[in-house]
Each structure stands twice: as structure tokens, then as C-alpha cells.
Amino acid sequence: MTIEYRNPVYNESGTIDVEINHPEFGWIPFTASPEDVEPHGRQIFEDLKDEAAPYTPPEGESDGSPN
Amino acid sequence: MAAWTEILDSNLEPNAPVRSVDHIAMRDNPIAIAEGAPGAPRIAGQQGPAVQNAGVFDGTLGAEKFQSGADERDWVLARASEATAGAVGTYAFLTVPQSYGGGPGGTLAGSLLRYSNVAASSGPTPSGTWRIMGYAETSQTVDHRTTLFLRIS
Questions:
Q1: Residues in chain B within 8 Å Cβ distance of A10
Q2: Considering its fold, how many domains does chain B have in total?
Q3: Is residue B25 one of the residues assigned to a domain?
Q4: What per-residue confidence (pLDDT) applies to A10?
Q5: Element (DSSP H or E) covering residue B114
Q6: Cα-based torsion angle of the residue sequence B54, B58, B62, B63 in order, rounded to the nearest 10 degrees
Q7: Beta-carbon separation of A29 and B129 below 8 A
Q8: A33 and B CB contact within 8 Å
Q9: B5 found inside a domain
Q10: Contact, A48 vs A8, CB < 8 A?
């Protein structure tokens, strides 16, 4: 099955944030990781690792992380 | 059970004598196919005594075809319990960033989240897409931003 995607970009964890067109939920945010327990997550990372835009640290005081 | 009989082309060629035995075979062969007689061709998707998976059209098997007894319940629960932590369909207790609070139904990429505990100590980052199943308050207090999530993709 082909997964439609857009806007892949590396995040600070080294995984890839991307929007995917889910067959049930439409366009949703997704984090693709080579260590995902789900095969499709690992496959998306493999497919996008050379295409994803590099990580850009956020400007300002907050880095957006939970802690 | 009707027996399957091979009918040679030579028996049916023009000018061949009309034989009762060939007509009986033509009558009985469809019955032999339906009954699964030895040597008879099989209907697609029904290679054995029961309907095979390939014989069921996609999307045609409704819930009314499933039983609802204890065996079926245990089977479903056993399948669900085989899921690895972080798999699609599993729940996790996660913390969201300060600016990403929200009520049930919101979806977030895994990279924005951290595995957490009730004291909101954060662990590693999950993969995939997660739906908020509780309530994550937009707050500077981290335990106000920690709630239950369901992985949906």
C-alpha cells in the first residue's frame, strides 16, 4: 500500500515528523522512527531519510519539549 | 456422493456414437463438483471441505457471522494482549509540550510527546500518531499536561 505524505522534516530526536494521508483519518501528523515497533513506521523513515528537511532548533526561550 | 468422471473429447466428437454413460457423467459431474468428490475440479476459494479464506470477498464478513461466547472473547483479548508497547491500537501515558494541550480527540505526532508517569517524569519519545483520550491542559505544570493517549497510526 502506498502512503501519501507531505512536509517531512527531522526533529530534535533524530526521527522524522511528516504528515501522512491516513485512509481513515485523513491528513495526520506522524513521527517516523527506525526503531518503531510498527513496520510501516520504520518503512516511512527509510523512505524519507534522504528527503526530509534538516532539523531547525526553535527560536526563543522554549524548545517545545515537555519538560 | 456422485463420482467425478472424465469425459474424453473423442467420446463427444462429431460422428461419435451417443453413449448413455457420457450423458450420465455430464449429469453427475456438476453434483460431484458441488460435493467435492475426489478428482473433481474445486470451486475457487473452496479447495477443501470448508470455504477457504480466498473464497470470502473482502469486506463482506459482518459481525453477525461471529459468535459472542467466552471462547471468542478470550481469543480477542489474547490477540490484543500480544501487542507491543507503542503499537497501533495501544494506550500510553504521555506528556505533551506546554503549548500543545487539548481535550479528547486531538492528534499529535509522537515526537511532541514523552512517555510519562503520574508524577510526570518524562521518558523516551514514541513513534507514530497519538490521539488524546483524556485531557491535556495548556499549562506550565507538567503533570497538568500528562494524560492517556491512543496510538492511531
A1: none
A2: 2
A3: yes
A4: 98
A5: strand B114-115
A6: 80
A7: yes
A8: yes
A9: no
A10: yes
